[in-house]
Structures are given as C-alpha cells and as structure tokens.
Amino acid sequence: MSSRSNDLILKTTTTIIVFVILAFSVNMLFAGHNAPGGGFIGGLMGAGALLLLYISYGLKPVDRILPINFTYMIASGLLIAILTGAGSFVLNVPFLSHSFGYFYLPLLGKTELATAMLFDLGVYLTVIGVTMTIILSIAEDKVENVEEEGN
Amino acid sequence: MLHFYIFAPFFAALLIGLFAKKGSRIHTGWFVLPVPAVLFILFCSKLPVLAEGKIVQSVANWIPSLDIQLSFYLDGLSMLFSLLITGIGSLVVLYSIYYLSKKEQLVHFYVYLLLFMGSMLGVVLSDNVFVLYTFWEFTSISSFLLIGFWFYRERSTYGAQKSMLVTVFGGLAMLGALILLSITAETNSIREIIANRTDIIESDLFIPILILLLIGAFTKSAQFPFHSWLPDAMEAPTPVSAYLHSATMVKAGIYLVARFSLIFSGTDIFFIIVTGAGLITLCIGSFLASRQTDLKGILAYSTISQLGMIMSMLGFGTGVATLAAIFHIFNHATFKGSLFMIAGIVDHETGTRDIRRLGGLYTFMPISATLAFFGAFSMAGIPLPIFNGFLSKEMFFDASLKLEQTSGFAATFAQWVPFLAVAGSIFTFVYSMYLVFGTFTGKAKLDQLEKKPHEAPIGMLISPIVLIGLVVLIGLLPNLINEPILAPAVASVRGDLALIHLKFWHGLNTPLYMSLIVVILGILLSLTLKKWQPVYNRVPGKFSTDRVYQGLVNGLLTFSKILTKSYMTGSLRLYTSIILVFLVISTSAFIYMTDGFKISFDNLAPVTWPEVLIGSVMAVAAIATIWMNQRIAAIIVIGVVGYGLSLLFVFFRAPDLALTQLIVETITVALFLLCFAHLPKLKKSDKKSFEKLLDFVIAASTGALLTIVAISSHSSQYFDSIAKYFVDNSYKLGGGDNIVNVILVDFRGLDTLFEIAVLGLAALGIFAMIKYRDKGDMNH
C-alpha cells in the first residue's frame, strides 16, 4: 500500500483523530457498566482507530511503531475473560460470579470497581484482536499478491 | 449343564488357533473332532431322562432387566436336533479331515464350523425368544463365512452374499414376530408363550405374528419363494454343504415351525400357508432337480424339495403327520448327508461334479457307488424295508389322506394334497435315479476327467458308511429310534405323548398304491428323461426366483442410485430449496394442526412516522438488491438495510445495539467490498422463468411463514417476561446502570465468553485460510 500521492491532510488529521477515537473507545469500555457502551463496542472502536492509522500510514510503518501481534491479543483477551470467571472458584462461588464495591481512589474520588470490568476488558482485547487479525490478514495478502504480480 | 454344552464349541473355536501350528503334521480337524463327539455322547446320556417325560434345563442371567435370560432346555424336539447337530457334526469333521488339504486355511474353516455348531445348538436349546434370535443370526453369519470360505472365487462370494441377504431378511422378520409374541404373551420364555396360546390366537396380532414367523422359517429352510439361495450356497466346501445345507441349518426353519406349531396348528391359515408353501416347494424343488448338471446342484434342489415335504407335514398338524415329519427330518439328515459326502468324494477323485462328464464310475469306485445307491434309493422311497426314506414317505402319503380340515378353502385344498404329494414324489424318484445312474452307470468318459478316478481313502468313506448304515438300520428296525428319540420329539411338538408304532408293512392300502404309482411313473419318466428334458428350456423361464431375486437386487441398486442422484446434485440452490420447503411445510402443517395461528392487537406500541419511513426504505433496499447487476452495488444497497436497522434500534431505544449494529455493519460492508473486488463480474442469471418463479414462491412462502410465526408468537405470550428481574436487580446485584451490559457480562456472562471465543476462532480461521493456503492456485 505505497502511497502514490502525499496524503498530508489525511495523515495530519489522522494523528489527531486517532487519539480522539482511542480515548472514546476506552471511555466506552469503562463507562459501559452504567451508560451505553461496553467491551464490544469499545473494542470495535479501538480497532477502528488502529485501522485508520494503517490506512493513512501504510502497513509497514505502523507495524514498526506498534509491534503488536493481534493473534496474541485474541488469546490474551480470552485468557483474561476465562481467568476472571475462574477467579470466582477461589472464593468458592460458581463460575463467572461477579462482585463490585466502592473505593476511594486518589484523583478519582469515590469510584465503583467491579470484577465485571475485568471480564469486559477481556472482551475488549479479543474484539480488537479479532477485527485487526481479519482485516490485516486480508490486507497483507493483497500486498503480497500485488508484489508477486509486479515481479 | 446345558450352558457348557452350548458354549463348548465357542470356547473350542477360541482355542483352536493355539493347537493348529503351521506346517504341523497333524491336521487341525483332529483337534476339533472330540468337541462334537463328546457333546454327542453327553446328549445321548440325557436320553433316559427324556424317556421319562422330563426335561433338562438350566438358566443364567444375561440381561435380567429386560427379562432376557440365557435359559436353555432340552426336550424331545431339541434332543433330536442336538443329536443331529453333534452327531452329523462329528461325521462331517471327520470327513473334512480327509477332504480339505493342509494347504487350506484350516483354522478359519474350523473356527467358522465350530461357531456354527455352537450357535445351532443355541437355536435349538434356547427357551428365551431373544436368545433364540441371537443364535439364529449367529448361524446366518457363520454360514455366510463358510459359504464364502473360498473367498477368491466370485461364485462363492456371490452365493455367500445371497444367502446372507435372504436369511437375514427372514431373521429380521422373525425378530418382529418374536417381539410381537413376547408382547402378546407378556413373557419372553418360549414355553410360557406356548402355554398362553389362547391369548395369542385371540389377539389382533395373530396374523402378523404368524406371517413374520413363517417368513423367518421359510427363508432359513429354503421354502418357496425364498429357496433360490440354497443352490448358490453350493459353492461352499462339500463338508459345509453336507452339514449346513442338508442336516442342520436348513432345518432351523423346520425347527422353528415345529416349536411354535403348538400355538398355530389347528388354524386354517397356518395349514394353508405352511402346507401350501411346503407342497409347492416339494414339487418345484423336485421338478427342477433333474434339470441340474452339477451333482451338488441336484442335491441342493433335492434338499429344497425334501424340506418342503417336511414343512407340509408340519402344516397338516395331525399326529401321524408330525411323527412322519420328525421321522423324515432324521432320515433326510442321514441319506442327504451321505449323498453330499459322496458327491464330494466324486468331485475329489475325478476333479469334476458335472454329471454330463461323469458316468460309469461304478467300476472305479465300488464302495462309494454302493453307498450312493442306498442313499438315493432311500431318498426316492423305493418300497423295500432297508430304506428308511420309504417309511417316512409312506407315512407322508398316509397323513396326506387323513387330513382333518373341514371348513371352506382349507377343505378344498386338503383334497388336492395327496395329488401334489404324489406328483412331487414322482419327480423325487426321477432325480434320485438321474443322480445315481447318471454318475455311476453307463460308459466312463475318462478322457473328459482331469484325473483317473479311483476309490476314495478309507477315512473319507467312514462318515458316509456310518450314515448309510443308519439308513439301513432304521429301515429295518424303525422302532429302534422311535421310542427314545422320535416319540419325545413328537410329544414336544404336539404337547402330548402318543407313541405310534412304526412298521414297514401296513397291508394293501392306499398309501402303498400311491407308492407304487410313484415308482412306476418314476421309472417311466426316468427312462424317457432325455426326451422330455427340453421342457426345462421353457419352464420356469421368466418365473425363476433367481431372476426375481436378481431383479430385486439390481432394481434396488438402480432405484437408490437414481433416487440419490435426483436430489444429491451438488447444487446448493437445490439443497437450500429443499431445506426451506421442508421448513415451510412442516411448520405450517404444525401451525395448522395445533391451531397455532393467533393474532391480537393488544399490547401493541403506536407506530410513528419515522419508523414507517425507515422500514419502507429498508424494504425498498432489500427488494432492490435482487435486481442489482453488480456485486459491489448489491453490497452497498444491502448496507442500507443494516444502517436502517441501527436507526430503528435508536428509535426503539437500544443504544448499545444501535452502536454495535452501526459499527458491525460498516465493517462487514467494508470486508465484503474488499473480498468481492477479487471476484469476477456477476453473470446475468440464465435461469429459466419457471425456476425463477419457483424461487420466488419458495422465498415468498418462507417470508410469509416467518411473518406468521412472529405475529403468532407475539400474540400469544403465556408467561410474564423475566425482564423485570433484570431491571430491578441490575444495579443492586450487578452494580451497573446499563442493564444490557450487566446482562452481557454479569447475569449471562457465559454467553459472552463463548461469543468472544467464536470470534477468536473465526479470526484464527481466516488467518489460517489466508496465510496457509496453497498459493500456487492463485497465480496462474
């Protein structure tokens, strides 16, 4: 995906917008318990932000800056989700029993913390991993084909 | 004790491999021989017990919860058969030691033979109907293995397959009969079933039971029209033919009819079917036997006709007839066994069994020839006191004259029985003469034989000598076996003990005249055999059951091929149509039958204009997709439906769904565009207008069905929704205000866990498909 023209405007706006989207995505994740949102939508938006980066800057530069293996991300997301569920065994309650409480944290004040959040984090990571794996697999494949045809 | 008797052959079959070493000097058969011989002696030792009118029995648990017990009992009928199985079994094993060379796969042979012997004993001794059925199928399987012993010959495998198909068909029919019997009589024990005979005769299931049971018996005993497997089973080694196809297995059907005849005998339908089938078999079998050119072929048809005779006597149901049947079972086993063995000797010593190439063997094989004369004369029923066959045939005629049927068709039919009996016996005489004189007299055709014929080794002759000895002994002194063996057997078939004295000379009476007619006409027909033999070229022609069988098998194959090809076309369009049509038909039939359609206008929300607008846009987009000529255009138009849906979610106040739908729709549209860019241009559909119409009808009816289901299910809410619980408890228990999210991650977190697992798998699947595919295909 070598850019033939100088996409200056796209790249510049991307750098700004990506952070906005990422922030919104993380917000979705954390706010999900009490407002519309959650791990799934947050994950999809996070993936959207990363996708925008790939579109504007191409595969190789982004891979260099963000050396993430998204298939590992799927695995870690699933692992977090399962471990969150299995954690309830330690307290001798059924699988996937969640609990929550209110804590006073520095800077944030009175905050609600729920173990369901951890589970949602797993969902979040999995969804990002899945989306990116699918899209990058297809995209990289196309690049190889183009190169081979070029040769 | 009986358990040990029955399972001894099975154990022996298990162990035989240990004794038979390759290259050993001792023929494996010698290790096998003691098994039937000892069993024979053991069974003989029970004879005095039976003579007192008692029975021997033993019971062991097998599946007590289903009332299936390994219960065995030995009464007169079982005793007769057990003696035949073990006695002739010993002789056959002895004969096979000389018949089969050590180069054959002897262990296989004897394992199959012992399995057969054990299962045959199981059949005749079982008291439980399901145990009976188990052993019955064991005999089918072991006989299948024995017929196909020379599996490299095409005819052997064909014969084995045919006998398997026919006998297993009958076996399954019999299983049906046995199940119905055990339901009707409320017990699985044969003796208790027979004791409940009035219940069975009065029940509605009587006719099905009778017919299914008789199908089982007729297929096993090669009765018309199921007889055609027996001649093809002659590809088996001769000891097998002698054992299975003359003395034991083919009599299993006879045993079955005899065993259950206490229930059925006396009813007209039993008489008509059993006697009718028996007499037809007798006539057809004896008529066709003289047509054969193969010695064993003649013997096979002869066995068929003799079994028909026994069967018809069982159908008569009178005391004399039953005794005659039992007597003939015994006699037939002796002379037919010996004749098979002699046919085997002839085959062994001359290299052929084709009667056209044989002749004049008397000078070369005097002992075999003498034995064959005795056997064949006994089979033909020559009126001399040294042939046991004559005695039973005379009783057959006698019984055929004394039928007690009074009513309707049965009475008319009974008048014809003696004539059919005589006709069948005439042809029996003809083929018996054809068999011995064709083989042993006339001019020897030495140039046509593979080797110079000479007398068989003495070991091979022992068994036929013993059997012919029995023929003569019983011919002379029939009462020797009458009292200890035949009378208890008749008693267990008839239910009461009535000893009938057997004697050769009855005085000048009708049966004797019938015998004389048979002999005279038989001699005339035998002498003119060459002249009328061309008849066989025309009869049976098309009516041959062989052709019927072959036609059925071929027809079934062709039919199933056509059927499978008609819907397994590989066309996804067809499969989808079938699935949808089935869905529509079954669901709408169910709605119709249960009166499930319901429409109520209560509890409906008001419809607002934006909803109507979005809905109609979605409908227009969905319909428009059908006429899109380009894939990409179709994807984008279908996207309208997705975005419309997410808008609807907004109006229905489902923000999470709306967000998710929006993003997922975007991603799927993008992915579709990415993938479809590689696909070739959409071709103009070349479907015929009829097919299009059909598609339209299927699609429209599926849509209509789902609409009806949706309306009906919305209109009939039987229970309160559980949503209230979630609304009330989402904050209290889950600590969140977003009820959807709390349900997803807390109340129903397991679903979510597996949904993300599904997503992960899908991603890995795509990854693997793209990264690890065979890339050679893409770049040509």
From TrEMBL, chain B:
Keywords: Antiport, Cell membrane, Hydrogen ion transport, Ion transport, Membrane, Sodium, Sodium transport, Transmembrane, Transmembrane helix, Transport. Residues 617-681 form the MrpA C-terminal/MbhD domain. It is found in: Cell membrane; Membrane. Residues 693-771 form the MrpA C-terminal/MbhE domain. GO terms for molecular function: antiporter activity. Residues 126-411 form the NADH:quinone oxidoreductase/Mrp antiporter transmembrane domain. Residues 63-110 form the NADH-Ubiquinone oxidoreductase (complex I) chain 5 N-terminal domain. One of its GO terms (biological process) is sodium ion transport. GO terms for cellular component: plasma membrane. The chain crosses the membrane at residues 30-51, 72-100, 106-125, 130-152, 164-184, 205-222, 242-262, 269-289, 309-330, 361-387, 416-437, 458-477, 512-529, 572-592, 612-628, 633-652, 658-680, 692-711, 752-770. It is a multi-pass membrane protein. Belongs to the CPA3 antiporters (TC 2.A.63) subunit A family. This is Cation:proton antiporter. It comes from Fictibacillus phosphorivorans. The lineage of its organism: Bacteria, Bacillati, Bacillota, Bacilli, Bacillales.
